[in-house]
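Q: My collaborator sent me two sequences in one message, no labels, and asked for predicted structures for both. Can we handle them in order? The first one she listed is below.
A: Yes, handling them in the order given. First sequence, followed by its structure tokens:
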Amino acid sequence: MNIKRIGIDLAKQVFQVHGVDGQEKAVLRLKLPRAKMLTYFQKLAPCLIGMEACGSAHYWARELEKMGHTVKLMAPQFVKPYVKSNKNDANDAEAICEAVARPTMRFVAIKTIEQQDIQAVHRIRSELVQQRTAKGNQIRGLLSEYGLVMGQRIEVLRKALPLLLEDAENGLTIDFRTLLEGLQQDLITLDERVDEMDKKIRLLASSNEDAKRLQQIPGIGPITATALICAIGDGKQFKRGRDLAAWLGLTPRQHSSGGKDRLLGISKRGDAYLRTLLIHGARSVLRVAGNKEDPRSRWIQSLCGRRNKNIAAVALANKNARIVWALLTKKTDFLPEAKPA
């Protein structure tokens, strides 16, 4: 059986496989249980394999590439237009097989194990921060029912809880004080877990050359640098820096027709976590730019004078994303602009 190209619809236990030969004729349609997946593809001659970039896709891509196959991952939204008629596993696999052959298709870079390790740390930390925020909101909500209103910042709550527990005249009952002590301990535990993740991220950032290089950019620290490394790797899947900025959703959306260009707000496509980190880092730079006289700071000051600070933050995040691409692809250090004469 001469198979030229294969599309795989991934699942947890049963995978649907669709293959075509050199004449684009379907020669393979079958379901494979998870246990037989690797064994089956070891017997096939090397060919082009397409898969959607979903859960476990990077693992299967690495395993199949070890067997000599060429594996391409695609975003599910780019595969959907090729699905014919009703949606089922067989039609999805056929659509993947068709989409992977398109010369203009955009592919997703396959992550290494090291990238997935770093990504796992970030995912755990992000979830812990959400849990800590929810815990703080729960404590504030319960205290408000007793007439005690706390500030919104988590630091205010940390300082206020010991004082509330020691104050015998604030009207809190013994039963609620016991519950509040438990909630305080939960908050302390979450703080410790977040600090543990932060230490791991700083250690990863200090041992990775690309992460060290990215931290030279104002507004990018260990968290943002390692998050970028685990998401885009060496950045060579993008042709230019503006492509990376567009992938991150930091460029305007278009609604153009009839030769009239109409630009809207930023597209907010791509990874919201990365976009948030870059914009927050840009905000930190904006706060101190007024005290500096270097060309970059003067450009920021001029931009803030013309436009809203939120727009300026996004513009600076866009600029930083382009610089990130240049540093990763060219393996060079960040060179600050020279001071004005």
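Q: And the one she listed second?
A: Here it is, processed independently of the first:
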Amino acid sequence: MFDFTKEQEMLRTMVREFAETELAPKALELDKRGEFPRDLVKKLASLGLLGISTTRDLGGSAMGHLAGTIAIEELARVYPSVAFFLEVGTGPVYAISHFGSEEQKKKYIPPVLKGEKIMCIAATEPTGGSELTNLATEAVLSEDGYVINGRKVYITGGGVADQCILLAKTGERASLIMVERGTPGFTIGRRQDQMGLRSVDVSELAFNDCKVSKDSVIGKEGSGFPIAMTTFTVARPAIGAIGLGIARGAFEIALKYAKERVLYGKPIARLQAIQFLLADMDSEIDAARWLVYYPGAALDKGASPRDIIKASSRAKAAGAGVGVSVTLKAIEILGGNGVSPEYHLARLLNDAMELIPATGTQQIMKIIQAGEILK
């Protein structure tokens, strides 16, 4: 069991109240419009959620990684798209705060934590997928900087981000390079349609003789791949937290319905078949919760990203899996109403399905986990 601090419990209450008052009434409409809710970014910043694990000297809340997991779970319980935005912002801030220069930290991080700027990481390519080492995007060093050519796909936040941390080849190795929106040669392609997380922008990005300065490299030249892998390891459990939040939201909808829906002269919650489904859902959620919480708690206690590689991949896989499994059971309990938009379960299921490939498929997570087991 985890012993949550008073501060963490207060955080959970605060985020839950925000989700219930600000997100729940708008969830169906936001999903129907499918627009990125930029107005909510400032509200998340005002609550200190955008820099929840970032140090205070950079404008963060310094509450830790477990606190971030809790916040994302509570947001996802009501509207997973906003939780996913919070997860996406974790990676760029972590990369710069841990590997960037002091100038880069001061320049890029505070505006993001204040909600004034949005940042994304662009790694995936049309022919690469999970094989990030198979890079076609290239940044060639010239006298006055780098000239970038290439294309990225499935970039979360790519169409709305003010700054993009790009993974590109620089010679024999890869580097992470900051590219500002509006830089000549940097264009935003089509927004990619998706079945769930409708308010999350996922876009293609193109770079055609895009020129940036030499000091745009995050960390040392050639260190892009290990920095990216470290960043993904730290951020990945947040995907699991979104799945956990979805599962909790679906369970609560199903439980309420089962207590109120009367058939055969009694609430269906008294039917053994329904009780079995509820018991399974409850067990799945509790089992996943501790797997999802563990990586953040370990980091807060001093573990390094290297120490949590197995736990991180396991947290993502468990959380994504429970989001789908529990929501499907909830739909069974509601029957025909389970696929009606007004009961939210169809929306939650679509969102949960989006988590399966996010940051690597379930099979990729097992490969990572097995690799650590076999060392």
